[in-house]
Amino acid sequence: MSGWPQDAVVDALTEEWRVIDALLAELDGDQWLAPSNLPGWTVHDIVSHLIGTESLLAGINPPSIDLDVHALPHVHNEIAAFNERWVEGLRRTPHADLLAHYRDITATRADALRSMTGADWDAETQTPVGLAPYGRFMRIRTFDCWMHELDIRDAVGIPGEEGGLRAETAFGEITSALGFVVGKRGKAPEGARITFELEGPLARSLHISVDARATLVPELDGPATTTISMSSPLFTRIAGGRVHASDHRTDISLRGDTTVGARVVDNLAFTI
């Protein structure tokens, strides 16, 4: 079975949309304007981005705007430029209307996903990681929406449950990239055996073995050369590029080869 079975991923993604809906319904006007961990974006802007991506997948073009989004300091590529067209286009939309727009487009997308054939789900399509099955794209969408739920919660100070189906589905995107991140960005040396010990709602041990390339493995063939321990919420936010490990040294425990461990956690972010 693939890492993106249709029923499970659609269930996770639509559940995520419902959770975000309920969260947004709690917010007052000032909370909608709270700055987030994402440069230049408020909570309102995050919701505009969510609307924009689902609208793209529904075949809806972004609104016309006068601003050159490429000139914005936090826009570094064409994906960011596309996102910003929606953010800017919806920036003056009243919060209640934006929530109604979000509800409409996610309902439309949920209906479309539920009616997809298996062949459509497995068909290759352009995704943020290149050509991949449509089902993989929807697991990426679950990850993106889950991370943005956390962005909103962190911005307004409303905690939520960070485990469960949607979190487990989204977390698959992090673990699938972990070998690349540890090997290429963290420059873990040949022969390294690295274990991440996570506590909290997504508690688990993740093992990376470096033999020619860094690979996520079920278990190590010997003792870990480096062990990195932290909470799963912190791990998620570092991997998602929301916070920097250097600002959370007291919340991260390194054992064994701590030089390698520090380099790995300092380069753990994999999102674009």
Automatic annotation (TrEMBL):
GO molecular function: metal ion binding
Stored Pfam families: MDMPI_C, MDMPI_N
Highest taxon in the source lineage: Bacteria
MDMPI C-terminal domain boundaries: 169-262
UniProt domain Mycothiol-dependent maleylpyruvate isomerase metal-binding: residue ranges: 13-153
Residue runs in coiled coils: none
Protein name, UniProt field: Maleylpyruvate isomerase family mycothiol-dependent enzyme
Organism, scientific name: Rhodococcus erythropolis (strain PR4 / NBRC 100887)
